[in-house]
Amino acid sequence: MPDAVIVEAVRTPVGKRDGALSGVHPVDLSAHVLRGLVERTGLDPAEIEDVIWGCVSQAGEQTLDIARNAVLAAGWPETVTGVTVDRQCGSSQQSVHFAAAGLIAGHHDVVVAGGVESMSRVPMGFSAQGHDPLGERVLARYGGVRPNQGLGAEMIAERWGFSRTQVDEFSLGSHEKAAAAQDSGAFDDQILPITTPDGTVVRADEGVRRGGTLDKLGGLKPAFKADGVVTAGNSSQISDGAAGLLMMTSEKAARLGLRPIARVHTAALAGDDPVIMLTAPIPATRKALARSGLSVRDIGVFEVNEAFATVPLAWLAELGADAKALNPHGGAVALGHPLGGSGARLMTTLVHHMRSAGVRYGLQTMCEGGGQANATVLELL
């Protein structure tokens, strides 16, 4: 039976809102990643049959099937197709799932999965401006409550009893781990430096803050609720960036003389309450573990997206995983969250860490708009 393996994984640095990458068109951010994948492997892009690309705000510069436009901007043959996916924050993780399913089913032999978001150029919510994406029936089903991610993060804090200090401590740790990863060179192999239109070469993630303290974080006002715990300091950063993974079957990799890094062992989805919105990583992880035949103790590293610090804290409380194995190089609180590119960014970081640390099994999950989540188990090869 065919399998699905990851041969290479790369990403751009993650730029801050209106930062160094804000002058780069999202099509060009995506094309930079596509070119990097073939340059790293020496693969003829004509071998690639499809590009499955996540993007959340498919409006303005990110519309008109950005996946296909990225293929053309990369200079790849016109025979290479592209399709754009929206599962909210999990869009590019879902792209990996679609790619793996297609490989295992025999629909293609070589595919790229990944995603992009330029939140500086296409602001969050831009595509819904002036429109109601929910409609009357969805609102009526939930008593007229319009879901809000920030309030959902506050609901998690209330349900699990997290204090402001606990949430800020987690966030401070995210920055400390990300800074240590930068200093040790842990991100160097996964990041493709990019030259902006003004000639600036961007080599590192811009969101990492050094020298933070609990006192500084504690001075920030709650962002969504006057007496709440969620602030800008313990939430993910609005960001620009792209990431991608070159995937194929093991048989095809052997024919091309390429050595896989990891295989997609298990993929799962879960849905949960769309009002609290952010809790689905918990049932998604449980489903993935049950389907894989593995226990939480078999997993050597976890990447749980830090949309808000309360999300991985609740996940940790429910799953009982080793806290030291969670987001070992920091997460979106420190590195940023370019929506459609985040799933592939997490997975790129995950596979590089698995390879460098010799970790056999890794698991990734992330909350998504509408109360959904993807979960993926990777196995090192």
UniProtKB/TrEMBL annotation:
<dbReference type="InterPro" id="IPR002155">
    <property type="entry name" value="Thiolase"/>
</dbReference>
<protein>
    <submittedName>
        <fullName>Acetyl-CoA C-acyltransferase</fullName>
        <ecNumber>2.3.1.16</ecNumber>
    </submittedName>
</protein>
<dbReference type="InterPro" id="IPR016039">
    <property type="entry name" value="Thiolase-like"/>
</dbReference>
<dbReference type="InterPro" id="IPR020616">
    <property type="entry name" value="Thiolase_N"/>
</dbReference>
<feature type="domain" description="Thiolase N-terminal">
    <location>
        <begin position="5"/>
        <end position="250"/>
    </location>
</feature>
<keyword id="KW-0808">Transferase</keyword>
<dbReference type="Pfam" id="PF02803">
    <property type="entry name" value="Thiolase_C"/>
</dbReference>
<dbReference type="Pfam" id="PF00108">
    <property type="entry name" value="Thiolase_N"/>
</dbReference>
<dbReference type="InterPro" id="IPR020617">
    <property type="entry name" value="Thiolase_C"/>
</dbReference>
<keyword id="KW-0012">Acyltransferase</keyword>
<feature type="domain" description="Thiolase C-terminal">
    <location>
        <begin position="259"/>
        <end position="379"/>
    </location>
</feature>
<comment type="similarity">
    <text>Belongs to the thiolase-like superfamily. Thiolase family.</text>
</comment>
<dbReference type="InterPro" id="IPR020613">
    <property type="entry name" value="Thiolase_CS"/>
</dbReference>
<dbReference type="GO" id="GO:0003988">
    <property type="term" value="F:acetyl-CoA C-acyltransferase activity"/>
</dbReference>
